[in-house]
Amino acid sequence: MAGSGAFGDPAAGWKRHIVRQLQQRDRTQKALFLQLVPAYNHLLEKAELLVKFSENLQQKPNDATSQHFLIGWQEEESGPDLDQSHHQPLSLQRLPCPPVWPFAPARLQMAYQVVKKSAALDRLQSDLEERKSRLVALEARVAQLQEARAQQVRQVEELRMQNAAQREAYEALRVHAEHQEAALRRLQEEAHDLLEQFLQRKVRAAAERNLRNERRERAKQARLSQELKKAAKRTVSIGENPHTLGDGIREQTETLSLAAKPESLESEACGKWKRPFRSASATSLTLSHCVDVVKGLLDFKKRRGHSIGGVPEQRYHSIPVCVAARLPTWAQDVLDGHLSEVNAVCFGPNSSLLATGGADRLIRLWNVVGGRLEGNQTLEGAGGSITSVDFDPSGSQVLAATYNQAAQLWKVGEAQSKETLSGHKDKVTAAKFKLTRHQAVTGSRDRTVKEWDLGRAYCSRTINVLSYCNDVVCGDHIIISGHNDQKIRFWDSRGPCCTQVIPVQGRVTSLSLSHDQLHLLICSRDNTLKVIDLRVSNIRQVFRADGFKCGSDWTKAVFSPDRSYALAGSSDGALYIWDVDTGKLESSLRGPHCAAVNAVAWCYSGSHVVSVDQGRKVVLWH
């Protein structure tokens, strides 16, 4: 047990207690047997002595002596002085001579008790041995458990050391990350300051350039006015050659070519001067009329031919007009166009090129060939989910609004973004080209609408609004924005203020302007479509249908190219088409879409419709 206690385990105390108890019991039982064995030996000796006395008594029988001996034997058996009488000499003892038969049963009983006690001793001995063996096994088990415990303690120490090392590394990384975040904030602040300085410099440069252009234009107009006045004061005789006079006037009017004078007006003026003059009064009237025509051209140039900076506006060629659109009836092609939800779709002006944009930050261009959609190109580089896609009227550029607080411009045929229009402070929800070249408009959830000069990637104007902007459309000189506060706002691109506000029921999700710019289609979250007549600025039609529900805040509805129908997708995957003139539901298309339809597009030729949904599907309808 000393070996087992050497481990220093406090739990070994109960083992020592058990061993002490076993040893105490062993001593107690051994003491009993130690008293029993001498008594048994003493009885054997007495039995031999009695045998000898019985032999002697048989030779000399004596009843009195036998009785006296029997009484003495009983006294000796019952008294405590058995050992003392046994050691006395035989001559001094009074030995009775009882008969032999009374002593046989006593001997047998004592022998039986001896055998019984021996068997009990053997059992106790075997039990003791078994318990000793169990004690040895338990001591071995205790040794194993102590060794396992020591191993677990070592593992705990190692893990504690690893944990401490990892905690130190984590603290170091956290401190480093805090330093990096602080450095990032400083860099962002510096970048913001640099951007503000850059924008201020660009604003100043634009203002100076506008001032120079305005001065140059005023000087040019003053020079032209003086030359025209001189030409008007000239006296022409009847005999003067009209061709020479016409050449002189043409020389004065040739300077108007800088203002892009229409050829028809120029030919008309030349034709008048080439006619032979009949009188001086006729000549004077013709000169006065020429002055009026030139002044009218200058006024027209000031009204329609110049931007804010005085540079002539370069308008796109006219977009083809559809005479009669065809109602779609069946799904001609179904594709999984994107890796995730598709948010926007738009046809190019030639009706054969299609653009789709989605939450996977990609814009895919498709060719409509033989009633099928064939992949053309993938435009990459968007910083966030695409919310709006638009082609310019020439079909050579694509403009997209993203969740990355910016709009991005691609050139068709180039995979990477050409320009990034950054300046918004929240998600950009709409981006549209204007009808004049190199100009665009964006709307954002930061409650602003911005006009952009795409040639310089510069924000030329910022319009602050009281509500989120969900969509914008552009006319000749008007910008229309739809907002989250259930209002439509009209902005004159040549003026600073809002010209008109039209309230509608429900949050506005999309706007669609007819080709003649006389009607506006509105989709709102009250599950209705509305048509506003811009000539009288009131709601002309309200479209509803059983089952039609606007699925999201960016659900897009469109006019057909001939403005005869209004098309929108529902949250149950169906397409609904209304007749604009009668206000009745013309048809509803179901089938491929199993999720909410986010946007629809009707090609300019009126022959195809494309719809996209939240389940990645792009469906071509014919």
TrEMBL record:
Its main location: cytoplasm. Keywords: Coiled coil, Cytoplasm, Protein transport, Repeat, Transport, WD repeat. InterPro entries: ATG16, Autophagy-rel_prot_16_dom, WD40/YVTN_repeat-like_dom_sf, WD40_PAC1, WD40_repeat_CS, WD40_repeat_dom_sf, WD40_rpt. It is found in: Cytoplasm, Cytosol. SUPFAM superfamilies: WD40 repeat-like (SSF50978). PROSITE patterns: WD_REPEATS_1, WD_REPEATS_2, WD_REPEATS_REGION. WD repeats lie at residues 335-368, 379-420, 421-462, 559-588. Transmembrane segments: none annotated. Residues 17-210 form the Autophagy-related protein domain. Residues 121-231 form a coiled coil. GO terms for cellular component: Atg12-Atg5-Atg16 complex; cytosol. It comes from the Eukaryota. SMART domains: WD40. GO terms for biological process: autophagosome assembly; protein transport. May play a role in regulating epithelial homeostasis in an ATG16L1-dependent manner. Belongs to the WD repeat ATG16 family. This is Protein Atg16l2. It comes from Sciurus vulgaris (Eurasian red squirrel).
